[in-house]
Amino acid sequence: MNCKATNLSYQQTGYFSRIITDYLQNDASLRSFYAHPVSLEGVKSAIYARDQFKTNRKILVEELTKQYHNLELSVAVRDNIEKLSLENTYTITTAHQPAIFTGTLFFVYKILHTIKIAKYLSAELPEKNFVPVYYMGSEDADLDELGYIYLDNEKISWEAKQNGAVGRMKTKGLEKIIDRIEGEFSVQPYGKELAALLRDCYLKSPDIQTATFKLIDKLFAEYGLIVLIPDNPNLKNLMKPVFEDDLINQTASSIVEKTIRSFPENYKVQANPREINLFYLKDNIRELIEFKNEKFIVRHTEIQFTKDEILAELKNSPERFSPNVILRGLFQSTILPDIAFIGGGGETAYWLELKDLFGHYSVPFPILILRNSFLIIEKRWEEKITNAGLMVTDIFKPAETLLSEIVKNESKNQVSLQKEITVAEDYYSNLKMIAGNIDITLQQHVEAMRVKALKQLKELEKKLLRNEKRKFEDIHRQIHQIKSSLFPLNNLQERIENFMPYYAKWGKAFIDLVYQNSLTLEQEFTVIEEK
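The structure corresponding to this sequence follows.
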């Protein structure tokens, strides 16, 4: 494919929160909430901190080997699993829940960013090994968030009627959605290949986490990506001291609440801790654990434990305890030799709440890297943008703003009254001075005249612009077509669309296209235009 990539700052897009744009600009108010800058020097600092912590590599490699037992291992994945037993191997990790069919485009983007950084660091620091890892949040129970995709702006939901962790849910019912996908994309060059891939991964798997495991491996194994499913008794066994401390002492909540209280007031808190930050996970149950009336209660069930009983349950069945968002990162960085975490805006924001929690348990805090973001502009839309006389940076603006700018630039008639408004400002300022020299109280009267006159001029300017816009109906229509296509549901493309339309058109070349244009530590938004 012949494509052109353009990079711009996240702030230019207008789609990212204040806390994220400030973080990317190294704002002083946030520096105490992270450990390492996003730079090669920051990587070296994170490696040094990691070397002071003992990772149980033996159990990690054993459990990964078991998880991959039924898959045909690629050479790259096999090599990377073996490298994890070495003390000079570190992981670059991203995490995501097992949304059906990957959910939205940014799932793919964050994985490819993780892979690209691992390769970049391996070249920059050849004496070390860097392994990309996708940590599957398969214990998430929010099916409303994970059980749908959008195709052509239509929301298609999986009517699962199952409870508990989504990763453990059976794949029954997904065949209907796959039939729909095949019908929609079979005319595309790789449409049938896509449908066959989904049937193999989902309809031949016992549950969603297995299906996701297979799909992600099929898409990214050649890059050496390791998929880790942490819903595992031997991995959770490594977290028993922290889980016990959370149950008995509620340490995490007090530490994170203190951090949140020290946050600058202009930032929204992304994740609030609970007294106990663990769910009880068994069969089709994943419910919060609460301490009430001297008992540990599993919400929405009749399950309850005394203190001795719940500690015995933790000792004998650690897999039944599932960390929430406050403890998940700590679990991840305990079982993996992490030096960097790749996350979206929301993830990066809540990780900024966790540094002191990591410090309390002496777990090294990784570099926080905002995942890469992309806007894919197919050739037909690239041509429309060019014909409309727009630049790549223009299309992030609201449609009405864009039209107003075009009208002002291209209209043969004057529609801006800025010069006249400036003249009026000067006129009333001078009049105010004249009146004040005679009677200071007259200045208030002149000010009222000024406000009324400027209001009328601005209203006239709006009417001039509105009437002139009617002469630009064709360009108006084009702008709305471009915006509705590239920013579906008034959101970023990557937050709504799925990878499948692009895979059906380009096959694995789409994955490689994004990989080749993925940045490493630059932290910029990328627009890819098909030429």
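The first strand starts at residue 3 and ends at 8.
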